[in-house]
Amino acid sequence: MISNHEEIENKPINPQFIVRHLAAAEGYLELQMPGYAMEELSYIADAGPFEPIAQLFRGEALQAQAKYAEAIQPLNLAAQMFPKPFNQRAFMALSNCYRHEGQDQLADEAAAAAVPPDVAGLDSVQLAVMPIFQIKNNGGNRITQSHN
Question: Which band of pLDDT confidence, cut at 50, 70 and 90, is reported for residue 116?
Answer without folding.
Answer: confident
